[in-house]
Amino acid sequence: MNKHQFLSMTAASLIAAGALAAAPASHAASMEKCFGVATAHHNDCAGISGLHSCKGSSPNNYNPGDFRVVPTGTCEKLGGLDMAQAKTILKNPAEVKAFEARMEAKAKG
What we know:
Mean pLDDT: 81
Shape: elongated
Keywords: Signal
Low-confidence stretches: none
Number of helices: 4
Signal peptide: 1-28
Number of domains: 1
Number of strands: 2
C-alpha cells in the first residue's frame, strides 16, 4: 500500500466515523420524555417523584413522576405529560391518584 492509498483510506474512515457519531444525536432529537405513561417496572431512568433511582424500578403504573422516552409528538396521543405538567400534578396527591386512575381506565379501553 502506498502513501496515497493509506491517506485516502484514513480520510474515508474518519468521515465514516464522523457520520456514525452524528447519527445518535439526530435520533435523540426526535425523542422526548413522556411522564405518566410508564407501567410498573417499565420506566426509563429515575423519575422526578423520588420513589426510585433506576430504570425499570417504578413501583406502580402511570405515576406522573415516571417517564418513558417516546418519539416526539407521541406523548400527547398517549395521554402523557411534559415535565412541567408532571411536576404540577405531583404537588397534589389527590391529583396523582386521579391521573393514575384516568390512565388505568384509558389502558383498559
